[in-house]
Every structure is written in structure tokens, then in C-alpha cells.
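Sharing a chain and its predicted structure for anyone who wants a worked example. Both blocks are below, sequence first, C-alpha cells second.
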Amino acid sequence: MAAEIRIEGMETVIRNLQAYVPRTHAKARQALNKSGESMKDGIKPETPIQSPSESGGHPPGTLQDSITKSQVAGAGDELKIEIGPSKKGFFGYFLEFGTSHQDAMPWMGPAFELNKGNAQRIAIDVLKELFR
């Protein structure tokens, strides 16, 4: 005994699904960009403001001012965005991980953990627009 399943109109279904691909990629980039902006905005207030003696002579707030968001990079299903200190805030690495002369004072990892839920919600909200 065999069952037969017949689906008619698959060409139309496939054509309609393919029309979503460019919209999907554009929305994915938008979702990543908006969630990245949210993450950057959430990390900045958690960034330590060091005195010049603690930051190698940099003015107070240099690390906080150096937090940036890159443009969305990649293509297809390999998109990425980077949030963190620019070159002028390089000393943030030493704060995060420590040195042979200074204990680690993590700030970026905890700030990420604090803000990741909101960034995820923003990305999901943008992606839901595909289905409206």
C-alpha cells in the first residue's frame, strides 16, 4: 500500500519565496545594525572612566568616548558587526584582561552580558517586520 501526495503550484511557491531573499538580507543587516547600536549605547555607561595616571596619560573619558560600532560586514548568512574601543581606547584591553602589573578589571564582558538581552529583542523586533 502506498500513499500519493501531489503538490500543485510549487513553481509559484518557490518564486514567491525567492522574492523574499533580498528583503530578508536587507532586514538582517538592519536588525544587526540596530541591535549593535543598542549594544554600543548600553556599553558606554558601563565603561570605566580612568584618571590620566590610570590610563597611561589619556584624558578621563577617553575609553568611554572610544566605544564605536562598525558597519555591518559580510554577505549572505555570514554577517557581523563589531562594538568596542577604537584604537584610541586600546588601553581598555589592559583593563579587561590585566597585565603583569595590574589585575584584570573586566568591564566589556559584563557590559555585554548586561545588554545582550535588549540587543536580541531589538533584532527580533526588526526581523518580525518581514512577516507583517
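Comments welcome. The helical segments are 10-43, 62-65, 92-97, 108-128.
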